[in-house]
Amino acid sequence: MTRARFPAQARLHRPSEFAAALKGRRLARGAMFVVSAAAPADETDPTARLGLVIAKRFAPLATTRNAIKRVLREAFRHQRPGLPARDYVVRLHSRVTPATLTALKRAVRSEADALFGRISK
């Protein structure tokens, strides 16, 4: 069994990479998130890469934004071996409802698993 990792090569870094993925095809949409993707810019290492856009206007507290990002990265890390080699951007598109951090993390994880599962099929 291979260990799921999330190295720096699995992340989007440049604004141009984010822009290309956001202009690409919208693959999945859930209650909180939209996943867009484009072909990877780096053809030498064809793997799935992730970028996150968590806007302050939808999640005003920094602790909330950071928790959402942590959970999304973890879900992507587990699903990454089964995903096609593309650059993915997960964007928060609706306001986060007030809830405990534990309840928010559960909701984000269930939606992230569902979205990435839909993409990997």
Short key terms for the protein model shown above:
globular; 4-stranded mixed β-sheet; 121 residues; 3 helices; alpha+beta
Short description:
The protein has 121 residues and is of the alpha+beta class. The chain has three helices and four strands, in the order αβββαβα.
| Unreliable stretches | none
Order of strands across the widest beta sheet? 1-2-4-3
Beta-strand level of the residues, as a percent range? 15-25%
**Average pLDDT over all residues:** 89
Globular, elongated, flat, extended or rod-shaped: what is the shape? Answer: globular
Structural class based on helices, strands and sheet pairing: alpha+beta
What is the rounded distance between the termini?
21 Å
Proportion of helical residues: 25-40%
Q: Strand tally, please?
A: 4
Oligomer: single chain
Number of alpha- plus pi-helical segments: 3
Largest sheet descriptor: 4 strands, mixed
Order of SSEs: HEEEHEH
Our Rg estimate from Cα atoms comes to: 14 Å
Could you characterize what this model shows?
- By secondary structure, the chain is α+β, with helices and mostly antiparallel strands.
- The protein is built from 3 helices and 4 strands; from the N terminus they run αβββαβα.
- A hairpin with a 3-residue loop joins β1 and β2.
- The radius of gyration is 14 Å and the shape is globular.
- The two termini are 21 Å apart.
Topology (SSEs and partners):
Elements: H1 15-23, E1 25-29, E2 33-38, E3 49-53, H2 62-79, E4 87-92, H3 101-120
Parallel strand pairs: 3-4
Antiparallel strand pairs: 1-2, 2-4
